[in-house]
Amino acid sequence: MARVIASATVSLDGFIADDHDRVGPLFDWYGNGDVPFNGGDPDRVFHVSAASAAYLAETWSRIGVAVIGRRLFDLTNGWNGRPAVGDAVFVVTHEPPSGWPFPEAPFTFVTDGLASAIAKAKAAAGDRDVSLTGGDLLGQALAAGLVDEVQVDLVPVVFGTGVRFFGAFGGPPALLGDPRIVAGDRVTHLRFEVRK
């Protein structure tokens, strides 16, 4: 059965972007190594350290479907119709975009809430996992008990302000298990099971 895996590259102080939605040095680790890694889009090849490549190969290969918010969809233009990871994307939105130039892309716009989007994504993923992006969606999903694992690609930079990894999380404390740790180059990969 599909598990929901929340993941993002995060600053040391818990931000996934600055106040203007720029990632700055957060994504530098995707290009600071000698090992090419492709997550599924042939036009998006990263060059990472051997440790990060092994970590990405293990974690990304399990992802069947992604759930993202409308904000990320708009910022990336839906990666021009190619999922960043997995085979399909479910976009949580109040209103589907009009005139998006990739109507045949494997993107489904869900207008009846996050829980519905996750349920639909899990059904589509089958026995593979569902990736959930950080930000307000993650905070809402964690508070609702919909997240099974949290993956943090921790980068040694301090932003001070910006878009928080857990958004405006306002639920009861969420207890996580002990981390599994992979040290990359300018990034530390952490995986935490969410205790239910």
Describe, in plain words, how this protein is organized in 3D:
There is one protein chain. This protein is of the alpha/beta class. It has one domain: Dihydrofolate Reductase, subunit A. Helices cover 19% and strands 30% of the residues. The strands form three sheets. It has an eight-stranded mixed sheet with strand order 7-6-5-8-1-9-12-11, sandwiched between helices. A two-stranded antiparallel sheet has the order 2-10. It has a two-stranded antiparallel ribbon with strand order 3-4. Helix 2 links the parallel strand 5 and strand 6. The protein is globular, with a radius of gyration of 16 Å. Residues 4-168 form the Bacterial bifunctional deaminase-reductase C-terminal domain.
The CATH topology turns out to be: Dihydrofolate Reductase, subunit A
Taking pLDDT < 50 over at least 5 consecutive residues as the criterion, the unreliable ranges are none
Tell me the overall shape.
Answer: globular
Percent of sequence in beta strands? 25-35%
Across the major sheet, the strand order is 7-6-5-8-1-9-12-11
CATH superfamily: Dihydrofolate Reductase, subunit A
Number of DSSP helical runs? 4
CATH hierarchy, class: Alpha Beta
Count of distinct structural domains: 1
**Rg, please?**
16 Å
Order of helices and strands: EEEEHEHEEHEHEEEE
